Amino acid sequence: MRAVLVSTYDMGRQPFGLASPAAWLRAAGWDVVCLDLAKDEFDAGRIEGAALVGFHLPMHTATRLAGPIIARTRTLNPSARLCAYGVYAPLNEPWLRTLGVDAVFGGEFESELTRWAGDTRDLSHTPLRAARVGRVPRIRFLVPDRATLPPLS
């Protein structure tokens, strides 16, 4: 199964928010492609064949830039499971769901996102959230997998 992880804006740095969940999903058997749209062109072909598409939302600018990309992704691949994760995802959950996002994960999202990705039930109408206010799960980080990202240099 193929997953695509998308970052729209990470202040010119290689997105840890793609590299970290990429390592978790690959460890769980997923074929993962990362798209850093601050550096890469949007690739509709990658989106069309994906079973899961995740959007990293670490800040307001990234969230607003992701809106049209999420809507376009839902149109290109209506059967894909879409999630949004990062600090700004829970803050914008109602809006994200209107765009077609199926699940929302807050901080320290890696384990919950991986668990959700592996769940084969139809969860499209189930409100999922990994982080609750005042409670962030403690996880054991994996070495980030930067294989499909532009070089750090």
Structure description:
The chain has helices spanning 16-27, 44-48, 60-76, 88-91, 93-98, 110-118, and strands at residues 2-7, 31-36, 52-56, 81-85, 103-105. Helix 1 packs across helix 6. The protein has 153 residues and is α/β, with parallel strands linked by helices. It has one domain: Cobalamin-binding domain (Rossmann fold, 3-Layer(aba) Sandwich), CATH 3.40.50. Helix 1 links the parallel strand 1 and strand 2. Strands 2-1-3-4-5 form a five-stranded parallel beta sheet, with helices on both faces. It is built from six helices and five strands.
What is the strand tally? Answer: 5
Class per helix and strand makeup: alpha/beta
- What Rg, in angstroms, do the CA atoms define? 14 Å
Low-confidence stretches: 123-134
CATH fold-type name? Rossmann fold
- Distance between the amino and carboxyl termini: 30 Å
CATH architecture: 3-Layer(aba) Sandwich
Number of structural units classed as domains: 1
> Which shape, going by the Cα principal axes?
globular
Count of separate DSSP helical elements = 6
CATH superfamily: Cobalamin-binding domain
| Main sheet: strand order | 2-1-3-4-5
Q: Give helix and strand order, one letter per element, not per position.
A: EHEHEHEHHEH
Indicate the CATH class. Answer: Alpha Beta
